[in-house]
């Protein structure tokens, strides 16, 4: 059951008990009705089992990482790689950001910035994929309602994809290949190459 408290002047907060017995607060309501509406919303979501405690997302990426490290079961080389990518790319950009404030658009912009800085597409994908794993584990710990790293298809990523050009043999190259197949194998192999071409 949630309740509303008047804090000062025109400020109210909504409070509720977490499953572990601790009390969480959502502040910043500038009128009593808004606070009561939010308290009612929290209670309804809890009954429906769709409630997400937004106050848990206040811990920063830096605070979450030590807890996340303890969950890993990978080899030393992978750990070293993760440590390098986290220290070099993730902490400088998002280390002080609370988990609950991470936005999908921020991560897309970060990915674009990495491409612009000259990193290969596969490198950027690896960095973003690692961050997605870190945040995915935060979702499992109920620190986030959803992972802000989304894989959107057909939304501008094509600019960073490597386009493989189809190579076609000229008629002369086909005939040379067929002649070589006939010399090395038999006439049927040469015929198959010409037919396929």
From TrEMBL:
Domain of life where this protein originates: Bacteria
Domain Core-binding (CB) stretches: 59-139
Keyword set includes DNA-binding: yes
Key words, A-Z: DNA-binding
This protein's record includes keyword Manganese: no
InterPro entries reported in the protein's UniProt record: CB (IPR044068), DNA_brk_join_enz (IPR011010), Integrase_recombinase_N (IPR010998), Integrase_SAM-like_N (IPR004107)
Protein name (database record): N-terminal phage integrase SAM-like domain-containing protein
Organismal lineage: Bacteria, Bacillati, Actinomycetota, Actinomycetes, Pseudonocardiales
């Amino acid at each position: 059951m949630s309740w509303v408290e008047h804090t000062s002047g025109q400020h109210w907060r909504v409070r509720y008990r977490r499953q572990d017995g601790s009390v969480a607060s959502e502040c910043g309501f500038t009128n009593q009705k808004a606070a009561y509406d939010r308290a009612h919303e929290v209670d309804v979501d809890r009954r429906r089992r769709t409630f997400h405690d937004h106050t848990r997302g206040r811990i920063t990426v830096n605070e979450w990482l030590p807890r996340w490290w303890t969950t890993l079961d990978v080899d030393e080389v992978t750990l070293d790689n993760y440590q390098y990518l986290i220290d070099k790319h993730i902490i400088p950009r998002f280390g002080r950001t609370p988990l609950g404030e991470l936005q999908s658009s921020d991560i897309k912009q970060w990915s674009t910035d990495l491409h612009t800085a000259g990193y290969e597409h596969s490198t950027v994908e690896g960095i973003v994929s690692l961050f997605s794993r870190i945040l995915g584990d935060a979702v499992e710990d109920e620190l986030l309602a959803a992972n802000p790293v989304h894989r959107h298809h057909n939304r501008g990523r094509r600019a960073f994809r490597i386009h493989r050009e189809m190579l076609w043999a000229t008629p002369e190259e086909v005939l040379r290949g067929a002649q070589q197949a006939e010399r090395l194998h038999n006439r049927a192999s040469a015929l198959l190459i010409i037919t396929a071409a």
